[in-house]
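Example: Putative membrane protein.
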Amino acid sequence: METETASRLLDPLNIATIVVFFTCWWGYSLYAQYNSKRKSCLVSVLHQFRLAWMSRLLRRDNRIADASVMANLERSSLFFASSSLLIIAGLFTAFNYSEKAVGIIADFYLLAPNSQQEWEMKVIMLIVIFVYAFFTFTWSVRQYNFCSVLVGSAPLATERGVDENERQSYATHMARVCSLAANQFNYGLRAYYFAMAFCGWFLGPYFCMASSLMVVLVLYRREFRSKTFKTLNRGLVVNNHAS
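Written out as structure tokens, the predicted fold is:
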């Protein structure tokens, strides 16, 4: 029985599913990171907006609105970090009731029924994904905290002894830290997207592979081809002229 279970876990189709899933996830992450430095996309455009934001921040003494925006960004990461903990708790519950869950989902599995060991393996992998998401979102929160400190310690517009080059350098560093925090938030969101794709494996390996490819297409379109990106890109041109 144990030999049969092990052979099913090491089934070529299951191994192919894992390979396709992580290739889609990590492959797209590397692709997006590489191309964000070489062509215009949501990440690069938003970094330019953050740079413009921080440059303008240094020209005014009243920064209440800036602190409010920073707090809103931080709350978004906190929300998803908290949600990750709740999901992890739910997955541990599903792990404890694996025998009942296998019986329920067996009617929906189109290829072959899940064994209890298969179910537990998939739940553990989902837990790992959401643990990764939790740490990613909490790191994003910390980086937004760092950015808040930078905003609080930024030189005032009327402060003497600070030349324009120093102000621009400070604004560049603030924008960079803010973008790093936003990037971590994006990585966490991608983990959520691919976790949804991974859930297709409970119905069958082909569902998981198809869902993974679909997530890649959705992410690519949103980051490189979406109307939102094009609108922001046009707004960046207007913003540069206004500066």
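The mean pLDDT is 86.
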